[in-house]
Fold:
Amino acid sequence: NDGCRTLSLSAHVGFDSLPDQLVRKSIKHGFCFNILCIGETGIGKSALMSSLFNTNFEDSPSTHFLSSVRLRAQTCELQESNVLLKLTIVKTVGFGDQMNKADSYQPIVDYIDAQFEAYLEEELKVIRSLFSYHDTRIHVCLYFISPTGRSLKTIDLLTMRSLDSKVNIIPIIGKADSISKTELPEFKKKIMSELISNGIQIYQFPTDDETVSEINTITNGHLPFAVVGSMEKVKIGNKMVRARQYPWGIVKVENESHCDTVKLRRMLCTNMEDLREKTCAYYELYRRCRLEKLGCRDIGPENKPVSLQEVIEAKRLEFFLEMERKEEEIKQRFVQRVNENAAMLEEAEQQASMPILTKFDHLMRMHQAEELKLEEKKKILEDEIAEFIEKKAVTEFIQSQVSVSTPVVSLKTQGLQKVSADA
Amino acid sequence: PRAGPVESKNEAAMSELVPEPRQKPVVPMKPVGINTSLLGYIGIDTIIEQMRKKTMKTGFDFNIMVVGQSGLGKSTLVNTLFKSQVSRKSSGWNREEKIPKTVEIKAIGHVIEEGGVKMKLTVIDTPGFGDQINNENCWEPIEKYINEQYEKFLKEEVNIARKKRIPDTRVHCCLYFISPTGHSLRPLDLEFMKHLSKVVNIIPVIAKADTMTLEEKTEFKQRVRKELEVNGIEFYPQKEFDEDLEDKTENDKIRQESMPFAVVGSDKEYQVNGKRVLGRKTPWGIIEVENLNHCEFALLRDFVIRTHLQDLKEVTHNIHYETYRAKRLNDNGGLPPMTVETEENHESNL
Structure:
C-alpha cells in the first residue's frame, strides 16, 4: 500500500461503477484476438476454425509443393450481444511438405517476431496512437499434431521448442476422428510426457482464481485437445449440425463425447483475457532483448538514467556512418578491381593481337638485352676478382716478410676461379 | 467471410433452433453494421466478465487536485465527495502558522473500497495559491508538479525492464474553485486556467454557492462560461475529445448547461424530513448538500465519480500524457532537465 492509510467510507460514494465504466469504454472500442494455426497441409486448420467460430474460413486448397513455409492471415469481425471482436486467423501454408524440414519453423518465428516488432515500432514513435493501433500480436498458437496414434514427430518438437518462449502454445490433435476411443488416452499421455521430457512450455489454463480453478485444472488434464472440424453440415433429426458423415456413422463436431472441439472453444473464450495478458508478457521479453541488442541500458555511464530516444538516435547515427563508410570502401575496391582487370585485359589483348613473327622478334630482342646485362655483370665481377687478387698479393707479401708463407694463396685462387666460373 | 449459398436457405431454420444468446449485461447495446452474424452461441461475450474481474483484482488509481484560494471550502468539498476525511482541513492561519511564501504542493494518498472495488485515491492540495500579495506566476509550481508526474511515468515506460503495471501518479482531474463573487472571473482564474487547461483536465466549480440566489447563480454561470469561451479555455470535457455522437450529446448538455457546477460542501449531518442528510445549518434554513434544488453537488459527484471517472483517466493518459511525451522526445533541449521529486518530498498521512 506504500504508506497509504485505508479509510472507511461513511456513505455510498459511487466509484464501484468504475468497472462498468471501463467495460463500456472497452465495448465501444472493440476487442481483437489473433490465433496462429500451425499444422501440416490438410490437417484441418480451416475446418476447425470454421467450426470454432461458426463462420466460413475456407481457403483454396493449397499444394504440397511449396518450397518453403508461408503464413496466410484472414481477418473477420464477429459480434455477440454487444461485444465486437476483430478475429484474425493466421495459418501456415506448406508446413511439413518440404523434403528438408530443418528450417520450417523459421518463417513462423519470424512472423511472430515481426508482429512484436511492429508494435514496438509504434510504441517508440514520437507521435503515436497506441489507443487506435490494431494489435496483430499473436495471442495463442494452436499446434496441430498428426493423428498417428504413436508419438510426436521431430518437427513438432523442433517447432514447439522454438516458439514456447514467444507465444502461448495449445497443442491439439487434428482429425481426431481417425483415432479410436481406446487409443486416444494413450496417445494423449504419450504426447504430454514427450512435451514435458523435452522441456517444452505449453499454455496452462490459470488456476489461481477460485471460480475457474477447478474447471481449468480438469481441462489442463484433457490436453492435448482431440478436435474434429467440419465445413459441412449434416441434417440430424430436424437440425443442421456441423458433422462428418461416414458410411458407419456421423461424427458430430459439437458433441463432447465425440471430440474436444467444444472444450477448446469454451477454453479459448473464457480465457481470452488471460491469453492476452500473457502475450503482453512475451512482448515485454521481446522488447527487452531487442532494446538490449541495440545497446540500450537503463543506467548509462555515471549511473544516470539514459534517455531511450537519445540512445536510439546515437545508434542510428552510428549505423548510418558505418554504412556510409562501408559503402565507400566497397566502391573503392570495386573501382580498383575494375582498373586492374582492365589493365590485365589490355595487356592480354596486346599480346594476343601481336603477329607471331613480331613476337619472336620481340622475344629475341629481350633475350639479347638480358644477355648483354649478364655480360656486363660478369665483367664487373671479374674486375672485382682481379682487384681482390691484387690486394691479397700485397697482404701476403707483407705477411711473408714476417712469417713463413702458406700455400693458402693457391687454394684461394682455386676458390676464386670456381666463383668466376659460376658467375 | 460469408456463409455459402448452400446454407442460406437453412439459416432461417437454424436461427429458430439455436439456443438464445446469453442475458445482455447492463451496458446498453451499440448499433453496429457487421456482415457476419453468428449462428449459434460461441462465448465471445464472456470477455466482459473476464475484464471486469481483472480490473477488480488490480484496483484503480485516481489522483485529484484542488486549486483555489484558501477559505473556499476545498477540503470540505473533497471530503464530501469521497465521504471520508481524505483532506485535513486547515483551520485558517493563526499568527503562529506562516502563510506559505509560495504555492505548496501536498499529495496525500488513501485507499478506499466500495463494492469490491479498491481505489487508491490521492488528493493533491495546493495551499498558498492566490494568497500572496503578488500572485504572478503562482500556477508555475502547479504546472511543474503536473509535468513531473508525466516525467515519472515516462521514465518508467522507457525502461528496458519495466513494471507490469506502472504506478500512476499523474493528475487525472483538477478542480478549480471560483470565488462566488457574482460578477465575473478574476484575472488569476483566467491566467491559471489558460495555462493549465493544456496540460490537465480542469473542472471549474463555483465554491460556496450558498451565497447566491438561483437567479444570481444562473447569471454568474452564464457569464463564466462566456468568459472561458472568449479566452479560449477548454475545460473538461473538452469538445475535441468527444468520441462519438453519444458522447457529444451527453457532454454538450453538461458543457452548456451544468458547468461550472455551483457547489456547497459539508461533512455534518442534520435531520431533515426524517432523513439524515449532509448539510449546512443557518438561521434561515438547512442547506442540503445532496439536494439538487439547493446546489449542484450531486451533479458534480455523479459527473466526476459515477460517469466520467474512467474517461478522466483515459483523456489524461491518451492525450495529455502523449502530448507531454511527444514534446519531450522531440525537442530534447526544449524542456529544462527535470529533477523528479523523490518519495521523501511528499507528505504521507501516516
